[in-house]
Amino acid sequence: MKVSFSARQPLPFHIANIGKNVDFPDKNRNYTRYDEQRVNDILSYGEQSLPYLNIILKNSKDEKQICETLYILDKMSDKNPDKVAHSYGYISRFNNTDNPNIQVLLAGIYRKTQVPDGFGPLVKMLIRESKNDTKKPFDPTEEIGGAILEYLKNYSSTNVYRNLP
User: Is residue 153 classed exposed, middle or buried when 0-12, 13-18 and 19+ CB atoms within 10 A define those classes?
Assistant: First the structure.
């Protein structure tokens, strides 16, 4: 018997399932697979989902749950980076992580939101990772470096245009 879900599931249903079905990179794949249907369902709630996502970031110790939550915020920042920037207090909890999955997601969010306090942690991550010789399925320094370059580009543009008559 095929079950049809024509009615939209409530937001708490989706939030409670964040982190399930996350598939991290391995030696054959250098990217993470997320439950795109769940991600899109949560994104459809827009800003209403931010308090729930912030609670997860504040309390969770589960890597899959944290990564999928950051992934949702990264996607959300494509449309509304200013709203996601207000979650910096929750996101910044992970600034000192050595986890490459979390580092890549943080760099993506900071690249889009341009939170001023995100620059220092990115530089610190880049320096720490450039010294790290451990073998990982992928190297997060590319995303971290790209975020730093975006900060520098935007800062340079702002200063150039401020000095025009």
Answer: exposed
pLDDT tens readout for residues 38-78: 999 999 999 999 999 999 999 999 999 999 999 999 999 99
Task: Name which of 111, 15, 103 is nearest 65 in CA terms.
Answer: 15
The partner residues of 33 in beta bridges, in order of sequence, read 23
Burial of 108 (0-12, 13-18, 19+ CB in 10 A): buried
- Show me where the domains of the chain are located: 11-162
Enumerate residues 6+ apart whose C-beta is below 8 A from 16.
none
Q: What is the pTM of this model?
A: 0.85
Check whether domain 11-162 has CATH 3.40.50, yes or no: no
What is the number of H-type helices and E-type strands within the chain? 9, 0
CB atoms within 10 A of CB 116: 12
Q: 23 has which bridge partners? A: 33
